[in-house]
Design a protein that fits this description.
The complex is a heterodimer of chains A (769) and B (150).
Chain A: H1 13-17, E1 33-39, E2 45-51, H2 53-57, E3 61-65, E4 96-97, E5 103-109, H3 112-121, E6 123-128, E7 165-173, H4 176-181, E8 185-193, E9 205-210, E10 216-220, H5 225-236, E11 243-246, H6 263-273, E12 277-280, H7 283-289, E13 296-304, E14 310-322, H8 328-337, E15 348-357, H9 371-389, H10 393-400, H11 410-413, H12 430-440, H13 443-446, E16 449-452, E17 455-465, E18 475-482, E19 488-492, H14 501-512, E20 520-524, H15 541-568, E21 576-577, E22 581-584, E23 587-590, H16 591-601, E24 608-614, E25 622-632, E26 638-648, H17 655-674, E27 705-709, H18 732-744, H19 755-766
Parallel strand pairs in A: 1-12, 10-11, 14-15, 19-20, 26-27
Antiparallel strand pairs in A: 1-5, 2-4, 2-6, 3-5, 7-15, 8-13, 9-10, 9-12, 13-14, 16-17, 17-25, 18-19, 18-24, 21-22, 22-23, 25-26
Helix pairs in contact in A: 5-6, 8-9, 9-18, 14-15, 17-18
Chain B: E1 2-7, E2 10-15, H1 22-28, E3 47-50, E4 53-56, E5 69-71, H2 77-90, H3 99-112, H4 118-124, H5 136-149
Parallel strand pairs in B: 1-5
Antiparallel strand pairs in B: 1-2, 3-4, 3-5
Helix pairs in contact in B: 2-3, 2-5
Classes of the chains: A alpha+beta (769), B alpha+beta (150).
């Protein structure tokens, strides 16, 4: 391969570094009306009265929007396949506010300061209600987060709002209780994972204007432009044909932009007034009024026989979706479906529980999407079991984990809110990942720990898997055309959000067409100009959209050869083409001459192909993550000396960008493992509402990342590729927890794993508590 | 009120509100490479050079900059090009939202301490957050950029 599997610089990095207009707000109209939201000061309240007279009278205020301005129509903000497995439980504006930061009303004015003045003048009378702030008490609580009757599910997801249930799920293979009873060794442990904030550096941003065809043109920092167009059309009852969503460069998403945020209000204002409008979330709004990761309580029971074979896994999980149920069921299910198959030799497995509503910031999609929560619990429990059996945790995994050409019945049972798709692991290099990682971290020299005087060095590890798109649901497509002068345009619905998909997809097209990346000009995610793609989520882009590009480019090549055969008067099969020149017998024609001829001279036509791909399966990437941790004996302060990731993601289309995905995800995972924490006051107000109170890893926190890819070729992927966007985030929480236990004999079962928790536990042990 | 700024070597007069921040003034006058990531100096995305020193423009009142020299990435295109190529070669590009601010801070580091050690680079850039890359590839690219000069 000449382009694929090569370290090619990203196609857009240079222009972005030089500050070219690229991001959503760079394209806002100068005279855009500002849309500013009044946000609820209460965790739960009913709006009794709104006095907006003086605000409306303020010069420069265009309108004040309240729930009375909108037709009452429930929708979900989740950008997912349609019909969505998320409940339709949100209104553009509502008479109830369900968390501190929820939308009360919106003011629309000429500039920020007049909007701020207007917000200060508005008086809202609330009936303050008692909130549900502890998700363990949400189910069947007398307080209902969603008392209204006009909300619904699109198909059965276990939605029972009268019990504060957004979704529920139950599956069992074999008889878990019976198998556990017969096990020589069992553990039963409860774990907690916290809410994590995405903290993509570009806040949620949207702007809109009407064009000269009287169409609504929306620029949005979104991961799902096509879903956004549909959701806005359905909810605001604007014909789909009247809406164009353009996704410019997006400054990071991580799942947080897999949703509608300010778009509904801005679209409404522009469509209603005919004037350009915009909205940029303040950082406080990003924290307080967008999404977090779903916090979970995970009760895990494991049972193994006398030989260390895992026989049963029982997982009872409770998830907190906050005020609205975006991604409630699907994140929940991924905590099982992309974790449990790691141990596929069990006789019985059960996975069940509920996703409950609370009066917290809504939880939504976030890189890892449930897998990181499930992974922390299962991979922690596995180490606890190993300690109990006095068995080496690596040996245990080598004995019990998924291997190549094996399968798990879970794939057929658990899908995207519905049944899944059976599949064999045509590629699974977990064994190589584990053995190589063990070498790289010098496991045998350190395990369980090395005493360094004031400090202890220890190691810990975990294995993980993810998916590559959602089989039979996620569709990606690509159009490719040949231009005169012999270069190509590649139009994809796939959504570049900074992960490098424009570069990777360009490489795939260039490889097929035997050309270089500079001859393939990519344009992504514009609902008028590019073909459909579900968007950037579920680790789908390289695998699903990449396969669409592979098809489209191959078909275009065939089309070019057909035309050439006509010109050479020969069979297509007899033509040699090396990407630059066509040859047949003693005849030859350059691609440039060919493209110019069919554009200008003879039998002129535009050569263009559109092709689509829906995955019949979702081959999981696998990895093993190892941490070398240094802990201060006295203060329990921790330092990550090295994090080793050995990944099987099939072929790396761009090894450099793939490494960037893994490195970035590891660091985000370390943040979740060690300090990131969305915190509320007792009344449900967010404390961690800025970057001074919500810390993400800085460059001082990262000493060394060792990331390697094992040889692997997935036949169903483009040039052998699987996904790599999410897998990196899954292992740090369990690897850190396991390393802390290996160092101190102290098991921390709730995230984040902080020095305070370790010291507290140590004190409890030392004082016999 | 009117203030005078020298932006990228050009003297310009700006009509500003007394409570307006430099970031907002620059963005509404089309210096769109200066971007808002947070609102209180927490992320570094809004960095500009004020008399060759990196400052967060989100929290600097525009009137405070009156009479001073401001550099945005538009003013250091050659340096940004050099750094950008190293970012490309090291795979340090991801979302790029912070990259122009990174270019400014790194350029300022080069002026101050071209032989900066690993630790000095990390200390100097600690206020420039990145949520995408895990920092390692960025660090390698920055070292190569600084190495070009020596």
């Amino acid at each position: 391969m000449k382009v694929v599997n090569h370290k090619i610089p990203s196609v857009d990095g240079l222009g972005i570094m030089k500050g070219r207009k690229a991001y959503t707000d760079d394209f806002a109209e100068n005279d855009s009306l500002i849309v500013k939201v009044l946000r609820s000061p209460h965790a739960f309240a009913k709006i009794k009265k709104i006095d907006d007279k003086s605000a409306k009278a303020l010069p420069g205020i265009e309108m004040v929007l309240t729930y009375k301005d909108f037709k009452r129509k429930a929708f979900t903000r989740a950008g997912q396949g349609y019909p969505e497995p998320s409940p339709y439980d949100k209104f553009v504006l509502d008479e109830y506010v369900r968390y501190v930061g929820d939308e009360v009303l919106a003011v629309v004015g000429l500039n920020e300061s007049v909007c701020q003045d207007a917000l200060d003048l508005i008086e809202v009378e609330y009936e303050v209600l008692e909130p549900v702030l502890d998700f363990e008490t949400a189910l069947d609580n007398k307080v209902l987060v969603h008392p209204e009757d006009d909300i619904h599910e699109m198909f059965p997801i276990g939605f029972e709002p009268k019990r504060n249930k957004a979704a529920s799920y139950h599956m069992e293979i074999g008889d878990v209780k019976e198998v556990l009873k017969g096990c020589k060794h069992t553990v039963n442990e409860t774990f907690y994972t916290q809410a994590q904030a995405h903290v993509m550096l570009e806040p949620h941003t949207v702007n809109a204007r009407m064009d000269y065809q009287e169409r609504l043109i929306i620029f949005s920092a979104t991961q799902t432009p096509f879903h956004m167009r549909r959701i806005i059309s359905q909810t605001l009852e604007i014909p789909l044909s009247k809406i164009r969503v353009i996704k410019p460069r997006v400054g990071g998403g991580f799942g947080g932009k897999q949703a509608i945020h300010g778009e509904m209000l801005v679209a409404y204002v522009t469509y209603k007034t005919g004037k350009a409008a915009k909205m940029i979330y303040t950082r406080k709004e990003v924290f307080e009024s967008s999404y977090t990761r779903h916090p979970m309580k995970l009760e895990i029971s494991l049972g193994a026989d006398e030989n260390g074979m895992l026989k049963a896994i029982d997982a009872h999980i409770l998830s907190d979706t906050g005020a609205y149920g975006e991604h409630a069921l699907t994140v929940y299910m991924v905590a099982g479906s992309k974790v449990l198959p790691l141990y596929n030799k069990v006789d019985a497995v059960r996975f069940y529980g509920d996703v409950v509503y609370t009066n917290h910031v809504s939880a939504g999609a976030f890189r890892g999407y449930g897998a990181i929560q499930g992974n922390f619990a299962l991979e922690s429990a596995v180490d606890i079991l190993c300690k109990k059996m006095n068995m080496d945790p690596i040996k245990f995994r080598q004995l019990n984990m998924m291997k190549e050409n094996e399968t798990s019945p879970i794939f057929a049972i658990m899908g995207e809110g519905t049944e899944g798709t059976p599949m064999n692991m045509e590629t699974c290099k977990l064994e190589e990942c584990v053995s190589r990682g063990k070498e790289l971290i010098h496991w045998d020299d350190i395990y369980p720990f090395v005493d360094k005087g004031d400090k202890i060095r220890s190691v810990g590890m975990a294995i993980a898997m993810q998916g590559s798109g959602i089989p039979l649901i996620d569709m990606g497509s690509a159009s490719i055309k040949l231009n005169d002068d012999g270069f190509y345009n590649l139009m994809v619905g796939a959504t570049e959000i900074g992960q490098g998909s424009d570069t990777v997809l360009t490489q795939i097209a260039a490889e097929v067409l035997m050309t270089s990346v500079d001859k393939v000009v990519i344009y992504s995610s514009d609902t008028d100009l590019t073909p459909f793609d579900v968007g950037a989520y579920a680790s789908s882009t390289t695998f699903v959209s990449g396969n669409a590009v592979l098809r489209a480019a191959s078909e275009l090549k065939d089309m070019m050869l057909d035309e050439m055969a006509r010109i050479f008067k020969c069979d297509r099969e007899d033509i040699e083409f090396d990407g630059v020149t066509f040859k047949y017998d003693d005849k030859e024609m350059s691609l440039i001459d060919f493209s110019n001829e069919i554009t200008y001279s003879e039998a002129q036509k535009q050569l263009q192909v559109t092709s689509s791909y829906v995955g019949p399966k979702s081959p999981p990437p696998f990895m093993a993550g190892f941490v070398e941790l240094e802990i201060d004996k006295e203060t329990a302060e921790m330092e990550v000396i090295n994090y080793v990731s050995v990944v099987d993601c099939g072929t790396t289309i761009n090894p450099m960008l793939a490494k960037g995905q893994v490195d970035g995800a590891i660091v985000q995972g370390l943040g979740m493992a060690m300090f990131e924490d969305v915190k509320y006051t007792k009344k449900g107000k967010l404390i961690s509402s800025d970057l001074l109170n919500y810390k993400i890893p800085t460059r001082l926190d990262i000493k060394k990342l060792t990331t390697e890819f094992v040889e692997s070729y997935e036949e169903s992927g483009p040039f052998g590729a699987k996904s790599v966007g999410e897998i990196g985030i899954d292992t740090p929480p369990a690897a850190i927890a396991n390393a802390v236990e290996n160092a101190f004999g102290i098991r921390i079962k709730s995230l984040p794993i902080t020095a305070e928790k370790i010291l507290e536990k140590k004190w409890e042990i030392e004082n016999g508590k | 009120m009117k203030i005078k700024l020298n932006v990228n070597q050009k003297e310009k007069v700006f009509e500003v509100e007394p409570n307006e921040y430099l970031l907002d003034v620059l963005r509404r006058t089309h210096y769109t490479s200066v971007r808002r990531g947070c609102d209180n100096t927490g992320c570094g995305v809004c960095t500009v050079l004020l008399d060759n020193k990196p400052v967060p423009s989100c929290s600097l009142l525009a009137v405070k900059a009156d009479g001073h020299e401001i550099i945005t990435v538009e003013g250091i295109q050659e340096e940004a090009d050099k750094l950008g190529r190293h970012f490309g070669d090291e795979g340090a590009d991801q979302c790029g939202f912070c990259n122009p601010s990174m270019a400014l801070t790194v350029y300022s580091l080069k002026l101050e301490n071209p032989k900066a050690t690993d630790e000095e680079i990390n200390q100097y850039l600690v206020g420039n957050l990145c949520r995408c890359t895990g920092y390692v590839a960025q660090h390698d690219a920055i070292k190569k950029y600084l190495g070009d000069q020596s």
